[in-house]
Amino acid sequence: MAFDTLSDRLQGAFKNLGRKGKVSPEDVEAALKEVRLALLEADVNYLVVKAFMKTIREKALGEDVLKSLTPAQQVIKVVSDELQHLMGDENVPLNRAAMGATTIMMVGLQGSGKTTLTGKLALYIQKKLDGKPFMIAADVYRPAAIDQLHTLGNQLGVTVYSEGTDKNPVDIVRNGVAKAKSEGYTHILIDTAGRLHIDETLMDELIAIKEVAQPNEIMLVADSMTGQDAVNVAIHFHDDLKVTGATLTKLDGDARGGAALSIRQMTGVPIKFVGTGEKLDGLEVFYPERMAQRILGMGDVMSLIEKAQEEISEDDAEAAARRMFSNDFNLEDYLNQMQQMKKMGSMESILGMLPGMNKQMLAKANVDPKQLTRTEAIIQSMTKKERQKPVIINNSRKHRIANGSGTSIQEVNRLLKQFEQSKKAMKQMGQMMKSGKNPLAGL
Ligand code: GDP
Description:
The protein has helices at 4-19, 25-41, 46-60, 63-66, 71-86, 114-127, 143-156, 169-182, 200-213, 228-241, 258-267, 288-296, 298-310, 314-324, 331-344, 347-353, 359-365, 369-380, 384-388, 395-405, 409-434, and strands at 102-107, 133-138, 159-161, 187-192, 217-223, 245-249, 271-275, 283-285.
């Protein structure tokens, strides 16, 4: 998914900041440096990065942030607010005709996703706006485009107007629009031709289509995978056509996110939708605030920092780790750990605080909080002796423990087995650490 790398990097920058009790201007500078690198790596336009950094530096280094009780959170808030601002603050909805049918014209390079978006918007109009869309196939240069639109039309039960590939697209649009208006459709969607690169003949044709269709919305379709190129294309189309909205397609792909973060700033054109899949339902309304929070992994990073500050001092963490990896780790420690975890939230969040952990590793760790509660109940039903020396737990003891904890013998057995396994694994980790290897590398 787009933004994954950017999110990881930004979270990394803030995680370090969150570990500090007090935050100095140097700490903030160090985090901001990471933010800057992360944005540049995500292919955000350097002018945008420059302006962005200037604003957040001023705000993040302000007295009210550094002297606050939660400086790390305040810095993140500053970054999140500015990311949101960068992408346009508020969602801008589709334009509408004051009277009669709303006409939307797709423009963009070949392969950017215009035909697909035409279908997606038709579905959106049917479902969300309760409208009756009509599609016009005006891409006569890519023969498959017309068939593609007809296929989508059949799927959706939406009328498609086409005149084949040997007619002038401007005439096709004129005829199509007249037909749609006379037949009472609410939305007219025009799929226009693209080229591999911007060329003047194409622009002239689009300008002529704009003339005859008088669209309420000229929707620039930009492939987010192309990063900065998408921004350059947007600038060019906007210069010639006065684009009114943009849709960033293929955000589900491995895009670095730079286009989403630069396009609004560089063109002033609002991003209205994002494409998140090849299928017709792969369309999302674009909300800058949600996107900023998603990029930052906001919920996660905020609570992580709070937890890191509130719950674990570095000394405690180290002592716990030392015991965890030692030979005489017992069920008492296991229970202590568990209670600590419950206080702090999910296992993932704790694992996430360990340096070197990433999302894939966390997904593998896959911890279920409900299961933790049951495990805790089982251990609490054991005597002190049993916790310290689990080998003494025979069948009748298991029976008593299962009854006491409201679980079953099978669950008690499972826990004992798990405990043995994790003890073994931790012992190995401890040995690896002693020999200087990263014990988390193989998780
Ligand atoms: P056009 O030449 O601009 O009309 O582009 P198309 O609509 O034919 O799309 C080009 C390719 O991109 C097709 O294979 C689409 O399935 C794919 N595509 C379009 N939008 C998205 C999207 O949001 N996500 C993904 N993954 N693929 C998309």
